[in-house]
TrEMBL record, chain A:
Protein name: NADH-quinone oxidoreductase subunit K
Keyword terms: Cell membrane, Membrane, NAD, Quinone, Translocase, Transmembrane, Transmembrane helix, Transport
Gene coding for it: nuoK
GO molecular function: NADH dehydrogenase (quinone) (non-electrogenic) activity; quinone binding
Compartments (UniProt record): Cell membrane; Membrane
Main location: membrane
Organism: Streptomyces swartbergensis
InterPro entries: NADH_UbQ_OxRdtase_chain4L/K, NUOK/Mnh_C1-like
Lineage: Bacteria, Bacillati, Actinomycetota, Actinomycetes, Kitasatosporales
Automatic annotation (TrEMBL), chain B:
Membrane topology, from the record: Multi-pass membrane protein
EC number: 7.1.1.-
Keyword entries, A-Z: Cell membrane, Membrane, NAD, Quinone, Transmembrane, Transmembrane helix, Ubiquinone
EC class name: translocase
Protein name as catalogued: NADH-quinone oxidoreductase subunit J
Catalytic activity as recorded in UniProt: a quinone + NADH + 5 H(+)(in) = a quinol + NAD(+) + 4 H(+)(out)
Signal sequence segment: none
Similarity annotation: Belongs to the complex I subunit 6 family.
Species per Swiss-Prot/TrEMBL record: Streptomyces swartbergensis
Transmembrane segment boundaries: 16-35, 42-63, 69-92, 104-124, 144-173
Amino acid sequence: MNPVNYLYLAALLFTIGATGVLIRRNAIVVFMCIELMLNACNLAFVAFSRMHGNLDGQIIAFFTMVVAAAEVVVGLAIIVSLFRARHSASVDDASLMKL
Amino acid sequence: MTAQLAAYSTSTGEAVQFWILGTIAVIGALCTILMKKAVHSALCLAGTMIILAVFYLANGAYFLGVVQIVVYTGAIMMLFLFVVMLVGVTAADSLKETIKGQRWLALLCGLGFGVLLIAGIGSASLSEFNGIGQANAGGNVEGIAALLFTRYVFAFEITGALLITAAVGAMVLTHRERTERAKTQRELSEQRVREGKQLPPLPAPGVYARHNAVDIAGLLPDGTPSDLTVSKTLRERGQIRDVSQEALNDLRALEQRAEERLERKAIEPTTFKRPEEASK
């Protein structure tokens, strides 16, 4: 098997995540799809790290994980406060700034 | 293992692992976006993340594989589940489209994006592989640490600042300052009287319907179940058990049993008589 297959899998997972962001309206599920996309990127980084034979790709994947953890904390806090204000977790209901 | 990782191509075992686990990962990802309930989505995503951790291990990223399991499936997904339980259990995702044809357009966009991405990888010249064996020679964790604390040390420091900012931000966002004085019990009771709400405690669930489970509505004198007797959470989830027909079903079962009993009585004498007749 060619290790490029890992890149194809990463691309597939990223595409599924992106489609999920577009079609789902529950803010939590949208957020999960974003996590899926980040994970797909990490898989690509790790595969590249193996192909090029150095550890820089793994370092970048590590930083992606740290940033994702911080992002999840803030994002979920926003969703919780949004739910408190609107009693709904749907992204369609947060349309106060729409013209 | 390192010899295999340094190889030009991967081993058969890894190929088998890739095709089996890769299929499951894609199915998990699809379930994440297709499941109606957020809890199921979260569990499917957790499964996909565990499979990705296995892939990291297979690619020689031992440190990242363990971190993926500990941080992603252990911390982040459980945080997700926590928030889903807090927020999303009653909030079902409505399937009505607000923008006409948005779903199909989104699917089309996703498909086009995927084709572009995969075609891009396919046309790139990625034929030379070094394998990670040499980079991992002194140990994966040691190699990562050496890079992290030399070349990437500033990024690492900034990461610390980012994490602290995120923690403070989350606290600020979820903290609610009380802007008015809390109402006393007397004021609350006076308000209830003024608003004409239910003054005494709410009626107990189904004890008058010969049940004492909380998910069974108590029956009114005319036999109809009263939703007021069941907790609001169960009512919103639609988890009320209807027992209004239960009494009639019990009666029917009793009648049936009585009939069986009577039939047996009709049969029993004949069976008893047989030995007597035989003796005669």
